Amino acid sequence: MTGHDGWEPEAPELVRPYVITKGRGLPDEEHLSLITLVTASAEDTRRPARLSPEEQSLLDLCSAGYLSVAEIAGHTHFPLGVVRILLASLKEGGHIMTRPPVARARPADKEILEEVLNGLRAKFG
Amino acid sequence: MGSAPSLGERDYVRGGATQTAVKILVVGHFAVGKTTLIGSISEIEPLSTEETMTQAAESVDDLKGVQGKTTTTVAMDFGRLTISDRVVLYLFGTPGQQRFVQMWEDMARGALGALVLVDPERLADSFPVIDLIEQYGLDYAIAVNHFDGAPLRDERALREALDLLDDTPVVTCDARDEKSSAAALTTLVRYLLDRTR
Ligand SMILES: Nc1nc2c(ncn2[C@@H]2O[C@H](COP(=O)(O)OP(=O)(O)OP(=O)(O)O)[C@@H](O)[C@H]2O)c(=O)[nH]1
Ligand SMILES: [Mg+2]
């Protein structure tokens, strides 16, 4: 099964998000994956900049703790592609910090899987 | 779009600064119980994200030099479970439509594995889903979602119908029940762990 019949994520420049994102390109996917954790940086590390209302609302959302990229999209109802672009811009300006998931490596996987297994057992019996 | 929703403390990832995020996919055909299973385990109200997908229109328009486009929206829903101070697990519910390649790549990249929900009454609907999971090289376990009144086939017949490998785990579950859903997930994780040995 090949499974490609031409569906692509809508290019941001075609729609209103263009306005929001000022036409910036798509960021590096590895660093803003669905489960990359994001939080606002300390005020003094931020470069002074005028943020768009959308950037500001994402920054506000991230200021009280860590959320994954997917959760930020879920809470704001922005399309994922738009969220990624806005976050990339915020990161560029030093406004947010990100914790990408670890690269997959077999030994690391094993430790993580053991931790997940023990956690599930502890929680659900 | 506009102002940020106000979130409570519990909405944020506990100990986020030291957490490693991992994900497991919950896949299956239409209405098989993906959202129900995620909701029964998740510590947050399940959320969904949307991606607007476009497809260039077919050749008739191209001949006229008109760039026609078809647009559709695909949603994936997900939940979260804080495992420990070091690991936070996300569960992503993914529809079994293989045409959204980009979305599938996004979901599958770095996933630990997949729990495939199956309705014993509609086994054939699960074929494309399993094809897709195999295509992306994900390890998986089968959870037979036990709808009321649905006669559960014996496991051998089900394995045969789905063409499963001998060591692929098959469990039954009621996606509405937290313990039952967690047990299915535990079976998957134990299997994934065995595969690393
Ligand atoms: N009896 C029974 N009903 C279930 C079970 N799991 C889900 N349901 C019901 O089946 C229906 C569909 O469940 P969903 O969780 O929405 O299924 P889904 O796979 O997310 O569906 P889509 O996202 O539309 O593909 C709902 O009405 C659920 O309440 C189960 O284990 N037993
Ligand atoms: Mg659903």
Automatic annotation (TrEMBL), chain A:
This is DUF742 domain-containing protein. It comes from the Bacteria. Pfam families: DUF742. InterPro entries: DUF742. It comes from Streptomyces plicatus.
From TrEMBL, chain B:
InterPro entries: Gliding_Motility_GTPase, Gpn, P-loop_NTPase. SUPFAM superfamilies: P-loop containing nucleoside triphosphate hydrolases. Pfam families: ATP_bind_1. The keyword GTP-binding applies. The keyword Hydrolase applies. Keywords: GTP-binding, Hydrolase, Nucleotide-binding. One of its GO terms (molecular function) is hydrolase activity. Belongs to the GPN-loop GTPase family. PANTHER family: ATP/GTP-BINDING PROTEIN-RELATED (PTHR42708), GLIDING MOTILITY PROTEIN MGLA (PTHR42708:SF1). This is ATP/GTP-binding protein. It comes from Streptomyces rochei (Streptomyces parvullus). The lineage of its organism: Bacteria, Bacillati, Actinomycetota, Actinomycetes, Kitasatosporales.
